[in-house]
Amino acid sequence: MIKRWRLEPKDGDMEKYLKGELVEPKKPIIFYIDPATPKKWVPYLIQGVNDWASSFEKAGFKNAIMGKMAPTKAEDSTWSLDDARHSAIVYKPSDIPNASGPSVADPRSGEIIESHINWYHNVMQLIHDWYFVQTAAVDPKARKMQYDDELMGQLIRFVSSHEVGHTLGLRHNFGSSSTVPVEKLRDKAWVEANGHTPSIMDYARFNYIAQPEDNISEKGLFPRIGKYDDWAIEWGYKLFPQYKDAEAEKGYVSKWIMERLKDKQLWFGTEVNPDDPRSQSEQIGDDAMKGSAYGIKNLQRILPNLMEWTKEPNENYDNLENMYNQLTSQYGRYMGHVSKYVGGIMETPKSVDEAGPVYEVVAKAKQKEAVDFLNKNLFATPTWLINQDIYNRVGDLNGLKVIGDIQDRTLSRLLSAYTLSKMANAAADDGNAYQISELLGDLKKGIWSELASRKPIDAYRRNLQKSFVNTLVNLLSPPKVQTTSAGTGVSISVSVANDKSDVTSVARGFLSSLRNEINVAAAASADSMTKYHLQDVSKRIDNALNPKD
Questions:
Q1: Do residues 129 and 48 share a domain?
Q2: Is 185 in the same domain as 292?
């Protein structure tokens, strides 16, 4: 059931409303700002609330929502922040880097009764780090650890609008940004006019695709309330009193929705779909390979300047460590965005009145493009991430661990039983689908190229190759569950493997073939570390294929 505030025209205004005139609601939505809030941030929090007013005009209401400073005791001695009759943005003097927009609703009707948005002080650290790592390549204002009040205020405004959106009944729309072509995000005129995502409810953060030569201003870097948000409020709050029963209204609304969704930028992509590469947190643009390539270029511009841009007088290197970790995390997100294409299944909810499938497997060519991207940008050692000057100042960082951790996470996703099972199912129904054996072959070209070239294998590649083999070996040794035999109390391990799955068959056959190639390469290698590595990996495969009882 939809969650929404009760917005109704004032008495005597329904006729105006039906004619399409904007009317004021009997009871507007008001968010009061906690008196404890630092005064310089109050105008930005209020603006984040007021930004939604134009969206409600799409539903026929003016002055429907507003932010206000809480009254002082002198103005109203009875007013209390804890009074359930008042909605508020509550300031939390806490180091928690977050904000949240909960609401209380009547479960019988879905009517939202009140909301107390939580604004934790340290959300400012979170949005600083996001803005720095995603825009410092193009915005000089982002290149420092303490932002000026106007920039931080605008960042606070965007967080305020997002959380208010939740309290109006809106969910995260992780698919919204995928409706925008990547190249539009580099088009100064277009992106400054439209924003980089149609919904502020997306986790789109900032326009990390914009390049320095594009000369895009903050207007084209920041998220804003967009056309999807306008549509969601219109759909949720527009009244249809002319329809006397629910079925008549439902028929009209269904046709209305289908007509409006011809505009693809009004599409909603859920935050809980693990399979659809269009619905992803922190991703923008309609193609993760193109978008991530631009994102990496910007990270490569930021990294050489990181020591200078994080420097503060009389401080240690905590800033440097934090922002290097933020940068590598951003890079890891790009790899995750691309990985989701492999074994991907797109979900486009439709009614029976609409044509076309609801579920579609990602095209084979697109999956292969994703693997090629990973081979070139991750599995070929990203040496640009290695910065010894940074490591010399932050003792617990080193390139092997930083790069290895990202490679491990990516391999675990690509070669998980879940991903491979989806591929096996798709191949069973479509002979032209991307096969597991093709995936392994494509990965082998990138991860094991030294077998053919006979080149020495360095430490980074040795780590990657071991991770690749270990991940495949784990498919042959599925997890076991502990059960207790009735009456004896004896604990027994029982395998939960699906013996009918093609996943283990392909993994076993691939490992056997790979072992043969490894043995040949080991025998021919003149480099001792390469030889020892290949002999070790061969033994690991042999133990997995021929386990001892």
A1: yes
A2: yes
The pLDDT of residue 476 is above 50: yes
CATH label of the domain that carries residue 248: 3.40.390.10
DSSP string, 34-93: PTTS-GGGHHHHHHHHHTTHHHHHHTTBSS-EEEEEPPPTTT-TT--TT-TT-EEEEEE-
Whether residue 118 is found in the same domain as residue 194:
yes
**178 inside domain:** yes
Q: Residue 99 domain-assigned?
A: yes
345 and 287 within one domain: no
pLDDT in tens, 133-190: 999 999 999 999 999 999 999 999 999 999 999 999 999 999 999 999 999 999 999 9
Query: Torsion angle of alpha carbons 260, 262, 263, 265, nearest 10°?
Result: 100
> Same structural domain for residues 292 and 380?
no
In a domain, 91, yes or no: yes
| 162 contacts: CB under 8 Å, gap ≥ 6 | 99, 101, 200, 201, 223
Determine how many CB atoms are found less than 10 A away from the CB of residue 357.
10
Q: From CA 425, how far away is CA 428, in angstroms rounded?
A: 5
The whole-angstrom separation of Cα 85 and Cα 82 is 9
The model's confidence at residue 499, banded by pLDDT at 50, 70 and 90, is: low
Neighbours of 261 (CB within 10 A): 16
Residue range 84-113: average pLDDT? Answer: 95
Instruction: Let me know whether 299 and 185 are in one domain.
Output: yes
> Residue 120 is inside which H or E element, if any?
strand 116-120
- Residue 12 φ/ψ region, left for φ over 0, alpha for ψ in the -120 to 50 degree band, beta for the rest: left
- Which residue range forms the structural domain that includes residue 224? 14-309
User: Are 391 and 398 spatial neighbours (Cβ–Cβ below 8 Å)?
Assistant: yes
Rg for the chain, CA atoms, rounded = 28
Do residues 380 and 295 both lie within one domain? Answer: no
Q: Indicate if 121 and 234 belong to the same structural domain.
A: yes
Is 492 a member of any domain? no
Q: Specify the higher pLDDT residue, 478 or 490.
A: 478
Overall pTM surpassing 0.90 (yes/no): yes
* Vertex 197: Cα angle to 257 and 199 (nearest 5): 50
On the question of pLDDT at 226 being above 90, the answer is: yes
How many residues are given for the chain? 549
pLDDT for the residue 478 = 63
Tally of structural domains, the chain: 2
